[in-house]
Specification:
Structural class: alpha+beta
Distance between the termini: 25 Å
Protein name: ATPase P
Helix content: 55-70%
Number of helices: 28
Membrane topology: Multi-pass membrane protein
Subcellular location: Cell membrane
Family: Belongs to the cation transport ATPase (P-type) (TC 3.A.3) family. Type IB subfamily.
Keywords: ATP-binding, Cell membrane, Membrane, Metal-binding, Nucleotide-binding, Transmembrane, Transmembrane helix
Length: 787
């Protein structure tokens, strides 16, 4: 996932993205900081003991030796910085150490040496702690795979695995390459990829990404990618570049040092000139020695990188995180970003005498042999609703027309209608509905007669509305959709999400032009998932790829990759970026302000060198510890769910899927009431709806009211947060009761009375509308809280 180095033309155009490069070399061996800390601490303690024993000369010698020992590595750090073109505040430390030796303030020198060693050691420890998750990611890389050849299973290096190889993944093993499950279902721990700890089940034929851990029994995997092209290898390539040294906020700290250094020297010189005391000058230099102070910025940024990696968000480097924290404009592709990227069945219409469930089952029976994306959606929808496809024979497929087969001795087809086919009245109504809803239609015909229509569309992600609200809270001021899709569905989604703008029917070049135009006004983030999004991701200040199901090209062009298929992870990452940057700047500026106050006190003689060194030690440690706050979880970013509440959310989300046929039955019954010749069928449809409402829907709504909502109240802030949804439950129950009353009247009369039709039709259409809105609100506001 390493993006190609930008061309010279791109850089001349003013791109703010640094070209990826090798990580900066460490300033010294890893043992230097702890050894320096041990020596300076020992010399300070030994000198203190000797001073208590009234051996002043020996105490001064110990402190002087500790000071001299600290001067050597500090000088090395200064020389290394000067070679890179930076005159950092370590230079102030060297001047202060030399000054204390020159004026005989050996205790102050020893304290500065200890301060320097403490700051360096603390910063190194913070770097190690903050980058723990990234190192764990690298250590997790699979090295070998077990390849099955006939009846033989032999270990081979992962680099030798080819597309099409059959692999065996044992219990507890890491999936070596991307592939498809064959044989028994696989139970996987995908926490390394997604940040979610709950095991997931992948059925035969479903895709498994490399890096997941087999949490169940052994299963067979058919490789669909080589090691280098697999998901985990790309994440590892990206993670190797993670670091904070190149972040703009760190360069900001270097700029602070550029004026802080001459200011410190000037104040020290002025204090010496006005007072005639070199000790005052040394005292000023002592309190102006915030060696770990400006290291607080990279500590905060790297801490932010660690936080994002735990959420399944891989950030290329600290610069990308810092730019994300300053972003004010967000551009999003539609398909695969705001929508799921895969069509889903949203409605099934059946001809008179047919039931929607039977239409969907027959369509899945024929389509189960098709590789088409719409066919997969139909088969998945049937299985989700417990409608297992049966066997079909003589199956064939015509590109652009559909699939054909023989089911139960009858010629059955799924796809487009024949040009010469007679379109009945119910089918014309279905066509109109599809146009209004922006849905695609797969027609089911039996012996060339249309008997049903399956409507499909790419639905809005349930987590998208909450994610965009949180992004605005995090500081995003302008959100625009860029899509190659038609204007109508794009505008519909933009209206639902409250976007600031939408541009449709764009080519990849158009998207790049739009990104560049927005960049001229503010720091801009572009989110996409397809190959066509890669140029726009590269053109943005921050490119974000939906990497869970997106293309490799988009991931390679991106600065940030969301390895879990949830757009709300971008909101999490943005909140972390804003907080990390705020803490970094707060640490740098706050610490320097305290140092400036201490310098003023030292210049007028209020702080002798030894006391000033102790004070500066406290300032520096406090600032570093403040920077480490970026490692903590921001509880305000995402509500913390109790396990019981999370389990309830998953339960009711699954029930929503199961109840889709109830919603369809309500709408179909309302439509049948408009058929003047179908009174008997209409009444039977209403009776069936009444049964479904009584046996399935109302118990579901009651359980939500008495189980789910009370469990969510502590997270959402009390019962008022669910009050409007409870009112919807009451309205659903009222309309269902009205339908039941109509059924009772019709049963007493033996038929539906003409005076009932208008009110009953209104009840059914109203119930369908309320249910759709209520389901959508629950999914967006409540179900999206759960991982």
């Amino acid at each position: 996932m390493i993006r190609a180095k930008p061309s010279d033309d791109t850089r001349r155009a003013g791109s703010q993205k640094p070209a990826p490069g090798p990580a900066p070399e460490p300033a010294g061996p890893s043992w230097l900081e702890p050894v320096l800390l041990a020596v300076t601490a020992s010399s300070l303690i030994a000198g203190g003991v000797l001073r208590l024993l009234d051996h002043s000369d020996a105490a001064d010698l110990c402190w002087a030796l500790g000071t001299a020992f600290a001067v050597v590595p500090a000088t090395g750090w200064v020389v290394a910085a000067l070679r890179r073109g930076h005159a950092g505040v370590d230079l102030v430390a060297v001047l202060a150490l030399g000054g204390t030796l020159a004026v005989g303030e050996y205790l102050a020198g020893a304290l500065i040496g200890l301060m320097l060693a403490t700051g360096r050691t603390l910063e190194a420890a913070a770097q190690r702690r903050a980058s723990h998750d990234l190192r764990a990611l690298l250590a997790h890389t699979p090295r070998t795979a077990r390849r099955r050849t006939g009846t033989e299973v032999r270990p081979v290096p992962v680099s030798e695995v080819a597309v099409g190889d059959l692999l065996v993944v044992g219990a507890g093993e890491v999936v070596p390459v991307d592939g498809q499950v064959t044989g028994p279902a696989a139970v996987l721990d995908e926490s390394v990829l997604t940040g979610e700890s709950a095991p997931v089940e992948r059925k035969p034929g479903q895709t498994v990404r490399s890096g997941a851990v087999n949490a169940g029994g052994a299963f067979d995997l058919r490789a669909t990618a080589t090691e280098q092209d697999s998901t985990y290898a790309g994440i590892v390539r990206l993670a190797r570049q993670a670091g904070a040294e190149a972040a703009p906020v760190v360069r900001l700290a270097d700029r602070y040092a550029a004026w802080f250094l001459p200011l410190s020297v000037a104040v020290a010189g002025l204090a010496w000139l006005l007072s005639g005391s070199a000790v005052r000058a040394v005292a000023v230099l002592v309190v102006a020695t915030p060696c770990p102070l400006l290291l607080a910025a990279p500590v905060a940024i790297v801490s932010g990188l660690s936080r994002t990696s735990r959420l399944g968000v891989v950030v290329r480097d600290g610069g990308a995180l810092e730019r994300l924290g300053r972003a004010r404009t967000l551009l999003l592709d539609k398909t695969g970003t705001l929508t799921g990227g895969r069509p889903r069945v949203v409605d099934v219409t059946a001809a008179p005498g047919w039931k929607p469930a039977e239409v969907l089952r027959l369509a899945a029976t024929v389509d189960q042999y098709s590789p088409h994306v719409l066919a997969h959606a139909i088969v998945d929808a049937a299985r989700e609703r417990g409608l297992e496809p049966s066997m079909a024979t003589d199956v064939s497929e015509e590109v652009g027309r559909g699939a054909y087969g023989v089911v139960g001795g009858r010629r059955t087809a799924v796809g487009r209608l024949e040009p010469a086919a007679v379109v009945p009245e119910w089918a014309r109504a279905a066509e109109n509905r599809a146009v209004l809803d922006g849905a695609a239609v797969a027609w089911l015909t039996v012996e060339s007669v249309p008997v049903g229509a399956v409507m499909l569309r790419d639905p809005l992600r349930h987590d998208a509305p909450r994610a965009l609200r949180r992004l605005r809270t995090a500081g995003i001021e302008r959100i625009v959709m860029l899509t190659g899709d038609r204007p109508e569905p794009a505008r519909e989604i933009a209206a639902v999400l409250g976007l600031d703008g939408v541009r449709a029917e764009l080519t990849p070049a158009d998207k790049v032009a739009a990104v560049r135009a927005e960049r001229g006004r503010a720091v801009t983030v572009m989110v996409g998932d397809g190959v066509n999004d890669a140029p726009a991701l590269a053109a943005a200040d921050v490119g974000v790829a939906m990497g869970a199901h997106g293309s490799t090209a988009s991931s390679e062009a991106a600065d940030i990759v969301l390895t879990t298929d949830r757009v709300d992870r971008l909101a999490d990452a943005t909140s972390i970026a804003v907080r990390s940057r705020r803490i970094a700047v707060q640490s740098a500026l706050g610490g320097m302000l305290l140092s400036l106050v201490a310098m003023g006190a030292a210049a007028v003689g209020l702080l002798p060198p030894a006391v000033g060194a102790l004070l500066q030690e406290g300032i520096d440690v406090a600032v570093i510890l403040n920077a480490l706050r970026a490692l903590r979880v921001d509880q305000g970013a995402r509500p913390a769910l109790e396990p019981a509440a999370e389990a309830l959310i998953h339960r009711f989300a699954a029930e929503h899927e199961d109840l889709q046929d109830v919603l369809q039955a309500v709408r179909d019954a309302a439509a049948r009431l408009s058929d003047p010749g179908g009174d008997g069928q209409a009444l039977e449809s209403v009776r069936e709806v009444n049964r479904l409402l009584t046996e399935r829907l109302l118990p579901h709504e009651s359980a939500e009211e008495h189980q789910l909502y009370p469990a969510l109240e502590p997270v959402l802030g009390g019962p008022e947060a669910t009050a409007t949804m409870s009112r919807a439950h009451a309205e659903i129950e009222r309309l269902a009761g009205r339908v039941a009353a109509h059924v009772s009247l019709a049963d007493a009369q033996g038929a539906l009375g003409p005076e009932q039709l208008e009110d009953l039709r209104a009840c059914l259409y109203g119930l369908h509308t309320v249910l759709r809105l209520h389901f959508t609100q629950e999914e967006e506001n409540y179900f999206s809280l759960a991982p």
